[in-house]
Amino acid sequence: MVDFQSVLDAIKETTDKAKDRGQIADYIPELANVDMHKFGIHLLDLEQHNFSAGNSNERFSIQSISKVYTLSMAMGLIGEKLWERVDVEPSGDPFNHLSLLELEKGIPRNPLINPGAIVVADILVSLLDHPKEDFLAFVRNIAGDNMIDYDEKIAASEKLTGFHNYAAANLLKSYNNLENDVETVLDFYFHQCSLTMSCAELANTFYMFINNGKCRKNNTFLTKGQVKRINALMLTCGFYDEAGEFAFEVGLPGKSGVGGGIVALLPNKFCVAAWSPGLNDKGNSKLGMLALEKLTTETELSIF
Ligand code: GLN
Question: What would the CATH number be for the domain defined by 64-193?
Answer without folding.
Answer: 3.40.710.10
